[in-house]
Amino acid sequence: MNYSVKCECGNLLIVRSSDAGSRRPCTCGNEVAVPPLSVLRQSPHIEAETDTPENQTSHPLLVFGIALVGAFIVGFLSPPALMPLGWLMIFAGRVWFSMQILAEMALPNALLVFFVPFMPTVFLFKRFDIAWRPFLFGVFGIVVMLIGAAASAQ
Fold it and tell me: What is the superkingdom listed in this entry's lineage (predicted)?
C-alpha cells in the first residue's frame, strides 16, 4: 500500500509499506524519515494511480483484434486463402514474440532464443504478462491454417 509522509518543507512524499523505517530523499534535498510500519498503517493509505486509463485499449491488443477480424473476412471470401494467411499469422506472431524477447533480455541471452529450442517457452512462462499476445496470435494462425487446409482438401 502507498502512504504519504510530509517533509519539513511541506512536500508530500509517496512511500510504500516496504519503505517503513527507512529514509527517503525529498525534492528539496532533505531526507525524510519514514515511520515504522505500525505507524504507517494507522495513517490513511493512498490509492495507486494507473499509468493508462481503464477504458483505453492497448496497442498490441488493437492490432491483434484487427488481424483476427481480417482473417475471418478473408476466410469467408475465399477459404483456400486461409492456409497462406495462417502461415503469415504464425510468422508474424513469431517475429512479434522474438522482438519482445530481444527487448526484454540482455543481448547475449536473447540470442540464445534462436539456438536453444525451449528458451522461448521459458520466456513465455516467465513473462506471460507480455508474451501471451504474440503466442495467442500464432495459435490463431495455426487454427486459420488448418481451416484453410481442410477447405482446400474438399
Answer: Bacteria
Structure-block grid coordinates of residue 148: 484453410
Whole-prediction pTM: 0.49
Write out pLDDT tens, residues 95-130. 888 888 777 776 777 777 777 777 777 788 888 888
Sheet holding 12-16, edge to edge: 12-16, 2-6, 45-46
Q: What is the residue type of 29?
A: G
Please name which of 144, 142, 138, 141 lies closest in space to residue 79, comparing C-alpha atoms: 144
DSSP string for residues in 108-126 = HHHHHTTTSTTHHHHHHHH
Q: Which amino acid is at 154?
A: Q
Domain boundaries, the chain: 2-46, 59-153
Contact by Cβ (8 Å): 104, 127: yes
68 Cβ contact partners less than 8 Å away, ≥ 6 residues apart: 140
* Cα distance between residue 2 and residue 40, in whole Å: 9
Q: Report which residue type is found at 107.
A: L
Query: Nearest 5°: CA angle at 18, between 53 and 9?
Result: 80
